[in-house]
């Protein structure tokens, strides 16, 4: 990567880390810290944890499309300002209801699609996957850091301190976007980075993508559902909030080791490991129905949960990328992200409301049943090989004969032509030689 691409990748990744830290730090602490508010209820706690997911789910695609019309940086900066306002509302709230309002406002700053599109604009086709990978890794990294920092900050400065810090970080992100992130010089064809409205209906009904969208909805519903309850269990086991980071650090280390083991096995038995991971989640929630009275018992179950969660979280986006038609990855990932955030919202609402009305055992029982249904759902997922994507700029109209010749080349899986962008998207096997396609189209390197 050249200097512009490196600067783009790391500055945008830093924006992602700072913003997601603010969203994630709340998860491991709010169930305990929220008890100080006069209108405390388990339902409102659930809304406060998952509330941002609803506005994220609703606005993720529209904000991405808007960035294609008025520019990436204005949308990203505007989204960060909205996020900062939401953080300030939550930080100054004197009731849990206003914390929920702040969380909904935080989610309204839905800028993930615009950030990815800007990363695409600032990178060459050959280096774009590396830039996207750096940003993708930063998201997972921010989640783990948030689990460790959240309890420490909350124990010293309270929930208001966390929200105030997230607002400050969002303002820092605005500065980074405006003055550190390079201005776009190359405009990447939008099909593989941004949602395209015309593609959405087809992709919503795509049978394989639909299974993955429902899967990520369930996955994030389950992790949000879990975090409404885990902090309470730790406190009941005489672990004060400022010590929770110790439990989470054990969980993270063990789950990473477990993830490495799963990935090694998946090289030969990918679909089997997917099913094992979902079955592992079902086992965790089934065992939680019966007891949470031992710290060792609880940590073992949470370690198993995160091992399975990490494997699924890492693999689902790659599967979406491979399955989505050539030139439609941006639309497919936009839909996927909307399902992901909506799952977080549902997890908070279900955990809070069912737990308050019927008891926590019913929450875990529902989660276990959903995992069993999920197991049947993913049986229909076809094995996906790792495929490469190419974007070829064309200056002349592509003839039907040229398209026929391209489709017959060994290794070609899918071709999409977008005449108004003068671009062709091509998806092929790993060993495909792109020079063959260039020769057919009479393109220079």
From TrEMBL:
Its main location: membrane. CDD domains: MFS_YajR_like. It is found in: Cell membrane. GO terms for cellular component: plasma membrane. The keyword Membrane applies. PROSITE patterns: MFS, SUGAR_TRANSPORT_1. It is a multi-pass membrane protein. It comes from the Bacteria. This is Major facilitator superfamily transporter.
């Amino acid at each position: 990567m050249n200097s512009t691409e490196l600067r783009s990748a790391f500055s945008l990744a830093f924006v992602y880390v700072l913003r997601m830290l603010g969203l994630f730090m709340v998860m491991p602490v709010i169930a305990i810290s929220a008890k100080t508010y006069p209108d405390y209820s388990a339902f409102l706690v659930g809304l406060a944890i998952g509330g941002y997911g609803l506005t994220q789910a609703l606005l993720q695609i529209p904000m991405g499309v808007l960035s294609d019309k008025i520019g990436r940086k204005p949308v990203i900066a505007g989204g960060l300002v909205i996020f900062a306002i939401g953080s300030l509302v939550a930080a100054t709230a004197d009731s849990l209801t206003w914390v929920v309002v702040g969380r909904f406002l935080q989610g309204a700053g839905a800028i993930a699609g615009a950030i990815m599109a800007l990363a695409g604009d600032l990178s060459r086709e050959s280096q774009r996957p590396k830039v996207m990978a750096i940003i993708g890794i930063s998201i997972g990294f921010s989640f783990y850091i948030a689990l460790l920092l959240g309890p420490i900050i909350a124990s010293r400065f309270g929930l208001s301190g966390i929200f105030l810090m997230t607002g400050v970080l969002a303002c820092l992100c605005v500065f980074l976007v405006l003055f550190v992130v390079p201005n776009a010089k190359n405009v990447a064809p939008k099909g593989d980075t941004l949602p395209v409205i015309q593609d959405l209906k087809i992709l919503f009904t795509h049978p394989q993508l639909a299974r993955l969208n429902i899967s990520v909805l369930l996955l994030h519903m389950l992790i949000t559902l879990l975090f409404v309850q885990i902090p309470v269990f730790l406190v009941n086991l005489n672990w004060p909030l400022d010590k929770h980071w110790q439990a989470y650090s054990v969980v993270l280390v063990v789950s990473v080791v477990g993830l490495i083991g799963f990935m090694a096995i998946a090289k030969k038995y990918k679909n089997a490991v997917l099913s094992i991971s979902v079955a592992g989640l079902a086992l965790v929630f089934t065992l939680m129905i019966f007891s949470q009275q031992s710290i060792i018992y609880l940590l073992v179950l949470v370690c198993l949960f995160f091992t399975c969660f990490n494997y699924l979280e890492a693999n689902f986006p790659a599967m979406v990328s491979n399955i989505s038609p050539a030139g439609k990855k941006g639309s497919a990932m936009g839909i996927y992200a909307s399902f992901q955030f909506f799952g977080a919202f549902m997890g908070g609402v279900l955990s809070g409301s069912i737990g308050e009305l019927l008891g926590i055992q019913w929450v875990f029982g529902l989660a276990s049943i959903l995992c069993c249904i999920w197991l049947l759902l993913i049986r229909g997922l076809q094995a996906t090989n790792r495929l490469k994507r190419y974007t070829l700029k064309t200056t002349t109209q592509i003839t039907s004969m040229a398209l026929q010749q391209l489709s017959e080349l060994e290794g070609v899986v899918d071709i999409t032509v977008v005449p108004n962008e003068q671009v062709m998207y091509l998806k092929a096997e790993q060993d495909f030689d792109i020079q063959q396609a260039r020769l057919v189209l009479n393109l220079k390197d």
